[in-house]
Write a structure and sequence with these properties.
310 residues; five-stranded antiparallel sheet; 30% helix; 23% strand; globular
């Protein structure tokens, strides 16, 4: 299991449950997730060989095209297995080898040439492993959120090094009002180190009057996020210079966890390989639609307006 060092000045929102325990709960972990908990899948590992991803290169600096480099940094996982891969030709002795890989997709080409170093066998193994991880993530969603139906999924895999992020709440720059489900998995053979701190609404409430946050009422809540993560905490330019108290978590290789990253602040302190799946769910399908991000921010503004009026 993950090693967690809890800070006494930050809410303890961690929950650890086995998959069997989750199956026995009528709503899976939906109620816990909507209550802004960070749920760790206890005694579980993604059923794939992590050494495959360890063998891959995370160096994308050789890619000249900035757009392509960005696509490799936050790679759509299905690029590994959607489309034909290298063909395996068996020889007369029962062995064989993979042939060269050809594709007109520039992202798949870069995955093969750069991340897999032009190794057809590594690409084939990585494709198989990523398909298993993808299917497993979809299955975990259905088990853990049995009352949810997603209308969109963003399947992402990160195969480059992340170090010393600024602590932040995710901002997807999407104005649409939706419930987000995020499934994370450490695909590295080393622990993935996170810091987490305050709930977004809880922290915003402490800043509300001093920073005049009422001016964001009625606006896209992402604007409030931009202000707090930027001018208040310093943004990426001042990473690790904020004074927020924080929990420290070391996620084990293959470990899986769930959290609403717009509500739970987080900072990747160190990580090499990870899978991050984002599911979009209609508020109408929630147990409590008032627990979605947009509504929680709207309720904060309403609550603070009443407090001032009183």
């Amino acid at each position: 299991m993950a090693t967690i060092v809890r800070h006494p000045d930050v809410e303890d929102y961690f929950v650890e449950l086995t998959l069997d325990e989750i199956r026995k709960r009528p709503a899976g972990i939906t109620d816990l997730y909507e209550a802004n908990r960070l749920i760790l899948l206890k005694d579980y590992r993604m059923p794939i060989e992590l050494d495959i991803f360890q063998a891959m290169s995370g160096n994308i600096t050789k890619v000249d095209n900035p757009r392509l480099r960005k696509q490799l940094k936050k790679l759509t996982s299905t690029k590994f297995f959607e489309g034909a891969g290298p063909e395996f030709t068996e020889d007369e002795h029962g062995g064989g080898a993979y042939g060269s890989f050809e594709t007109e997709d520039p992202v798949r080409r870069a995955v093969y040439d750069v991340l897999c170093n032009g190794d057809p066998e590594l690409f084939a193994r990585a494709s198989t492993a990523m398909k298993t991880a993808h299917d497993t993530a979809l299955e975990l969603f259905s088990i853990c959120f049995p009352t949810y139906e997603y209308f969109r999924v963003v399947p992402s895999v990160r195969l480059t090094t992340t170090l010393f992020e600024n602590i932040h709440w995710d901002n997807h720059q999407i104005a649409e009002d939706f419930q987000q489900v995020r499934i994370f998995c450490n695909l590295d053979q080393r622990p993935r180190l996170w810091h987490t701190s305050h709930n977004f609404v809880t922290y915003a409430e402490t800043l509300y009057e001093k920073h005049g946050l009422e001016r964001f009422a009625g606006q896209d809540p992402n604007e409030l996020n931009n202000y707090i993560c930027g001018p208040v905490l310093g943004g990426t330019a001042n990473a690790c210079k904020d004074s927020l108290p924080r929990h420290t978590i070391a996620f084990e290789p293959g470990e899986v966890w769930f959290g609403e990253s717009r509500m739970i602040s987080h900072q990747i302190f160190y990580g090499e390989r990870a899978m991050v799946y984002m599911f979009f769910v209609s508020p109408n399908g929630m147990l409590r639609a008032d627990r979605r991000f947009n509504q929680q921010v709207e309720d904060l503004h309403a609550r603070m307006a009443k407090s001032v009026a009183a």
